[in-house]
Amino acid sequence: METDEVTVSTVCKALEDRAFNLLQTGTTLSRWGKSARSCPRQGTLALEIKRLFIQYPVFGYRRIWALLQRKGYPYNRKTVYRG
Predict the structure, then answer these.
(1) Residue 73 and residue 61: Cα distance in Å, rounded?
(2) Are 53 and 64 in contact, with CB atoms under 8 Å apart?
């Protein structure tokens, strides 16, 4: 019975160490997701999408994208879909 407890505690310790190491390397992982979202233009795009969605609540992302294209926003449909 004692060997099972030692094994479980050893596994728990190893998992804690692994989690601690992942937290320390978090800067490289967090840099991965910030490139597109930290752009100042993304903020204005999100505000414009919200404004258009309030003005035209029945429009989908494709029609919102078309309105943005007419206004001169050079964004892809996928970007508007995610926004």
Answers:
(1) 14
(2) yes
Report the number of secondary-structure helices (H) and strands (E) in the chain.
Answer: 5, 0
Question: What pTM value is reported for the model?
Answer: 0.51
The answer to whether 52 and 45 are in contact (CB under 8 A) is no
Same domain, residue pair 31 and 55: no
Provide the residue range defining the domain that includes 50. Answer: 39-83
Q: What is the pLDDT of residues 35-60, one digit of tens each?
A: 555 566 677 888 899 999 999 999 99
What whole-number distance in Å separates Cα of residue 74 and Cα of residue 10? 55
Whether residues 28 and 65 share a domain: the answer is no
Q: Domain check: are 28 and 47 in the same one?
A: no
